[in-house]
Specification:
Helix content is 50%, strand content 17%.
């Protein structure tokens, strides 16, 4: 049992996946907080059986994963103020053996590191092309990186100093936190070690589309918050979505049957070929091809996500959570 670390798990109606998450956390740490966001299944009972401290969010307020993680951290800190590190875990994930000790060792080895993460792997990439795309997405390089996903370890004092996640963000809260961590002079470090299994259970195109739409919303919201800074947070991504998801298609429609339209159409397969050649060369040819196709295809739902954020901003309406499962 690692006594320096506390674990915060968030979830809603995760069923067996939550049980795996709770069991894996209990194997490596005695300080576990589970934050439930309005589950209708037996999630809370399962957490209590496993001696996790349970926090039930008031669902009268808008729910975000950022808000849930912050609530879990505050509870952990109040019960165990001596906790040096906090490890965040989503309810659809499961720790791999040795991760907690390996992450703490990295924190001690690299005192400038504010955040440490490792390799996240998709549990069933063979079940659908969408799960496979997630597995490729998780496959990041080791070393100092700009951002991480929602599964990571952070120094408790640093997280408290930064006031945790920005709760208004419905997605993209982890990269935004990483940006502020880097501004504090700390690094985000991905180490060469397996961290956790992730179970996306994404079997339908509609699920993939909603997830991509949410990503576009996150890009737009992140660019609005930090786009004018020196980091130009997600400005490149938002511009790319407008170019491929709206500008080029609009020009093609206006210039329909014009001779140069064919060159605009060819831009898409050429972009796919470029991504296939440069991204994840260690992957099989089929995986690289599908990854490239869906990277380009994702520009359309991401552009719609950006438009959704802009329209909500103009009308003064708060954006609601975009869920894909």
């Amino acid at each position: 049992m690692n006594l320096e670390t506390g674990i915060v798990i968030i979830g809603r109606n995760e069923g067996e996946r939550l049980i795996r998450a709770l069991d894996s956390a209990a194997r490596f740490c005695s300080k576990v907080v589970y934050v439930d966001s309005g589950s209708s299944d037996n999630s809370i009972a399962e957490a209590k059986i496993r001696n996790a401290v349970v926090v039930e969010l008031d669902m009268k307020r808008p729910f975000t994963a950022a808000r849930a993680r912050n609530a879990g951290f505050r509870k952990l800190r109040s019960l165990f103020p001596e906790t040096a590190f906090v490890q965040f875990l989503d309810g659809d994930c499961e720790f791999m053996d040795g991760w907690i000790d390996k992450a703490v060792h990295a924190m001690e080895t690299y005192p400038e590191a504010g955040i440490v993460c490792g390799r996240l792997k998709e549990r069933h990439p063979e079940r659908s092309v969408y799960n496979m795309l997630c597995d490729i997405e998780w496959d990041g390089v080791s070393g100092i990186v700009d951002e991480c996903g929602g599964i990571f370890m952070i120094r408790s004092d640093l997280f408290e100093k930064l006031n945790g996640f920005r709760e208004s963000l419905i997605a993209g809260e982890e990269p935004e936190l990483c940006l502020r961590v880097r501004r504090e002079g700390c690094s985000v470090r991905r180490i060469d070690h397996d961290m956790a299994w992730h179970d996306a259970n994404m079997l339908l195109f509609s699920q993939w589309w909603k997830r991509a739409l949410r990503a576009g919303h996150a890009y737009a919201e992140g660019a609005k918050v930090h786009g004018d800074s020196s980091e130009k947070h997600w400005v490149k991504e938002t511009r790319s979505n407008w170019l491929w998801g709206l500008a080029l298609p609009s020009i093609m429609i206006v210039a329909l049957f014009k001779p140069f339209t064919i060159f605009l159409i060819l831009a898409y397969p050429l972009q796919m070929a470029r991504i296939r050649r440069n991204a994840h060369p260690e992957r099989k040819a089929r995986e690289r091809t599908l990854y490239a196709v869906f990277c380009v295809l994702s520009k359309f739902p991401q552009m719609l996500g950006q438009m959704k954020f802009m329209l909500n901003s103009l009308s003064g309406k708060a954006s609601g959570l975009i869920e894909y499962k």
